[in-house]
Input
Amino acid sequence: MNEKKAQELSHLASFLTASAIQGTPIPIPDGEGPDFVVPTDQREIGVEVTELVREAPQTGIGRRQMEGIREQVLAGAKRLWDEAGQPFLEAHVHFNEHHTPSKKDISRVAGELVTFVRAHVPAVGEHLHFSWHDSGPIALPTEVHAINIIRLASHTRSYWLSPDSDWEATLSVEQLQARITAKNRKAARYRSAVETVWLLIVLDSRRLSGWFDFQGAALEAVYESMFDRIFLFDRFTATVRELATRRPTSGSAV
Output
């Protein structure tokens, strides 16, 4: 199972638990039906899973892609640190908002971070802070604005973390309808594999890219849908809301 499918399965399993629905999801190969079939006591339910993230800016990369790259940098740095048998500590990496690493730079940035931290390991019980403009023979990579290094006697492993912040995004009717419309085109084909088909829209608010307000007009609107039911699921709070739907009117794009 690839990473995307595994993530969708994790979202669906959390949704089923939050909704008190009994059933073990069965992955369906791409092109043969919805993402999963969930056998229940009453019937088999096909479930298409899609994650809603903040829209990408006009220039640069989207926040979700940026988060993914940063996670890979930190995972790479932790792996290098642990493999070298370095002391247990916490490295809180504040990335430069204007210089997100490209995919080809992930290994380089991870290596430069490890080199910097190795040269600045604090004594047990100490906390060190460095900014990009701090002078020294070893500098932070351009993609990093600052770093906090903490070493405590209680540490039994090392942690490489990236603090982040942003405004809560507002869900819009237009954004949800656009996502539903894009999936509507597949709904009729899915019915050849399973009679009942649901659409699960996931807000993974464990990440800022998926952090939306879970209230307002977008939850009260009626959406044009070819699915039998549509659910909006906040992964972090395990909150489920079913959206009101109607069949697309004549001439509507599906």
